[in-house]
Amino acid sequence: MTKKALSGSTLLSIKTLGELKASGYQPLHIKDELRHNLIERLRKNENVFEGIWGYEDTVIPDVERAILSRHNINFLGLRGQAKTRMARQMVSLLNEYIPVIKDSPLNDDPLEPISRFAIDQIQKYGEETPISWMHRDERYTEKLATPDVSIADLIGDVDPIKAASLKLSYSDERVIHYGLIPRAHRGIFVINELPDLQARIQVALFNILQEGDIQIRGFKLRLPLDVQFVFTANPEDYTNRGSIVTPLKDRIDSQIITHYPHDIALSRKITAQEANLDAEQVKVVNQFELSKDLIEQVAFEARESEYIDAKSGVSARLTISAYENLISSAERRALINSETIVNLRIGDFYSVVPAITGKVELVYEGEQEGAGIVAQNLIGKAIRTQFLNYFPNPDEVRKQKKNPYHSITEWFGQSNMIDVLNSNSEKEHMKLMESIPGLKELVEQYHSNVGKEELIFLMEFALYGLAEYSQLSKHPLEKGMQFKDLLSSMFNISEEDYPEDLE
């Protein structure tokens, strides 16, 4: 935080106020510091927000403009849109070290002290006032706004224990225990889920944002706090749980709208980056491009589903957790069957239901199994959507003379059925897929250049896809899925489907 360039080693060697003055140091407010460092990064074409995908032409330019304008920022968007991550990455725009009065509770600048402690230290020691150096990582403070957050938490309060132990009057400024915001002086302060903060607490932020000062229990303090405020909020909060009071919104200079990835390619990039997989899992499980697309497609289907509350959103965490579950499902099968390498299967996708049910909010919760049923339907819709990227639309070729699915559906129409079990070994699964006439030929017709492992995967995918297009019937089993002819399954109603009094 100097206008005169100093090396890190030179900075850290400075221990007193006199040495600091001699070095040519000049104070710089945090918003000017962020602006200055952003300008340097932009001139060098350096990426400020690493690992943030899909915001290159939308959110990131808005954030950079806000920083250049020295604005406080509110990120407005649904859950799982990297709002907090972007706030945390703003730390990289701070100088690596800044000088502070040693042991100061408010990170006082030695040349611009604001606390009673710092002022007293300078009066007592003068040029020999001890200083220390604060790393940029220590200049970030984050608070989740909950209804129980108090003014004392954020701003401060009188500490009776301190007053008693130091034998001070309650009118003495030294009895004040400062809250999080004053202690974030010269730093970045983030309040997550701002609408959840009670209205009276939001009102207490007015002066801090506008004037930079605070009031505590009637103390006439003039603390010109130097803080970069960043808020996050979910649009759902404005109607369901709380709201940002209008005068506070008016004092937040830039409100930046975040969004979900616009396409599957970006979603895949985010999932691959965030998924917590170790090298052993990746080594054991063979993955395919389609399997990665299917996981992302589930999230896209969820965001369009009439059963899921659109205001709540579908976080990117859904696909990350689902992807981890998917790989673990195949890994578990390898362990059970004592296999060193396994291939992902479509059946593995139904093992990711637990990763979906907790990440979506239904429009109507209904019974306990409701979320599970919706999750399975989302997987089915994802298969249906991706099916058209690999095979012809069954609805369009149904009446054509050269129907590529005829051999498959005809075989099932002859009262044949198969049980695709999740626990089957690789050899058993391959043998089962190859036992269906026309299935291998179908995949080879449209994907002749794939390897043997992916060929089997696409054969199973075609089977599930035909079921989603009502060419076949599929019924869940405890350990897998059963496929048979659609027409015969409609007429083959078990006895348990009839009430006893109708028999």
Give a description of the structure.
By secondary structure, the chain is α/β, with parallel strands linked by helices. The chain has 3 domains: 8-257, P-loop containing nucleotide triphosphate hydrolases (Rossmann fold); 261-389; 392-503. Helices cover 42% and strands 13% of the residues. The chain contains 24 helices and 14 strands. It has helices at residues 8-13, 17-22, 30-43, 59-68, 83-89, 116-125, 151-154, 160-165, 180-183, 199-203, 206-210, 246-251, 264-274, 279-284, 289-304, 316-336, 353-357, 370-387, 394-397, 406-413, 426-434, 439-446, 452-468, 486-491; strands at residues 73-76, 97-101, 131-135, 140-144, 156-158, 176-178, 187-192, 227-233, 254-257, 285-286, 342-343, 417-421, 472-477, 480-485. A 5-stranded parallel sheet has the order 4-7-8-1-9, covered by helices on one side. The chain has a 3-stranded antiparallel sheet with strand order 12-14-13. A two-stranded antiparallel ribbon has the order 2-3. Helix 13 crosses helix 16 (316-336) and helix 18 (370-387) packs across helix 23. The radius of gyration is 31 Å and the shape is elongated.
State which percent range the strand residues make up: 5-15%
Q: Which outline best applies? A: elongated
CATH domain topology of the largest domain? Rossmann fold
Oligomer class: single chain
In helices, the fraction of residues equals 40-55%
Write the layout of secondary structure elements.
Blueprint: H1 8-13, H2 17-22, H3 30-43, H4 59-68, E1 73-76, H5 83-89, E2 97-101, H6 116-125, E3 131-135, E4 140-144, H7 151-154, E5 156-158, H8 160-165, E6 176-178, H9 180-183, E7 187-192, H10 199-203, H11 206-210, E8 227-233, H12 246-251, E9 254-257, H13 264-274, H14 279-284, E10 285-286, H15 289-304, H16 316-336, E11 342-343, H17 353-357, H18 370-387, H19 394-397, H20 406-413, E12 417-421, H21 426-434, H22 439-446, H23 452-468, E13 472-477, E14 480-485, H24 486-491
Parallel strand pairs: 1-8, 1-9, 4-7, 7-8, 10-11
Antiparallel strand pairs: 2-3, 5-6, 12-14, 13-14
Helix pairs in contact: 13-15, 13-16, 15-16, 15-18, 18-23, 22-23
